Task: structure prediction
Amino acid sequence: MSRWDISNISDQNGRTFIVTGGNSGLGAETVRALAEAGAEVVLACRNVAKGERVAAKLERVLVRELDLADLNSVRVFAEGIDRADVLINNAGVMALPEGRTVDGFEMQFGTNHLGHFALTGYLLDKISDRIVTVASLAHQFGTMDSADPNWEQRPYQRWSAYAQAKLANLMFARELQRRLSAAGSRQISVAAHPGYAATELQSHTESFLDKVMWLGNRLLAQSAAMGALPTLYAATAAVEPGGYYGPTGFGGMRGYPGPSASSKESENEQIAGELWELSEKLTGVTYTFME
Result:
């Protein structure tokens, strides 16, 4: 496991993957590796033109529009999917200035968590194998404020909002597995994180931090291709249901994939249950579990 890379991906012919945010960074590397392993891939993204540029270099990749910051777009996308083996909830935004989704949610919580919560709910009965949700090392600094998840009562703090959103991703993945297990479902839910990987996320904070993180990308970060390995491992290898996977070197920031540590709060089942109920209320999406 310590040296698992794309050469270890088994033949994926006949399998279909949906990858959100597959038009750049980690998502593009994920799409590329899966397509080269023989899979059919639905590249779901907001910027279709960028997605088409990724797909043009590959075979069996279909680009479809998906804006996770718009629940109507999420619903329309899901209605256009017949079936898939694996859903990879990869897309995300990081440390943005304060903003709102089409439906009025704080942009990071709304895009990273609520958009994927709704998408997974709409697609659940069409996914035969597993759901992979991409979290972040930043979840360790997050606290779930169920009373004010959308930063309407607190002064907005972009990094705290990002950490909360990524904590929500990890809590969602684990709570989904608990509910799948309780229903006797054969589907599994797992989570992954890329460690510290150089991607376009670090250039969209619209602040002086863009330059700081550009320097960090050059000096400390691993490549997007390496950062995608934990997601690919979670999506294709024999994994533990409800598991969490990331780089195994340098404090979880670099290296080949394996099991990853997580914060104590991410394992709190009561808070996860409250987040689930809140997410159903905010999105209007209620899950139906099948055996």
